[in-house]
Specification:
Number of helices: 3
Helix content: 25-40%
Number of strands: 2
Shape: flat
Radius of gyration: 18 Å
Low-confidence stretches: none
Oligomer: single chain
Distance between the termini: 40 Å
Order of helices and strands: HEEHH
Length: 89
Amino acid sequence: FDEFNRIELEVLSVVAQQIHSILLAKSQRVKTFVFEGTEISLDPTCMVFITMNPGYAGRQELPDNLKVLFRTVAMMVPDYALIGEISLY
């Protein structure tokens, strides 16, 4: 999901429950599980990734029940001058 924190809080709460259901099925290593009342097969290699741009107007903070489902990774613009300097010496 891109720009995940632009989704309304009510929707984020529902998505958190759905993601939790999928992750629980993965941890139990089942082949099928019930998702929203429908039994579906589980691809054990499935993953969920989200991107966020915090600090911009209109962005939401993620609820705690959703934060715990993801690992935080920070990214930044590379310093190409420093990379070039290190590579040349």
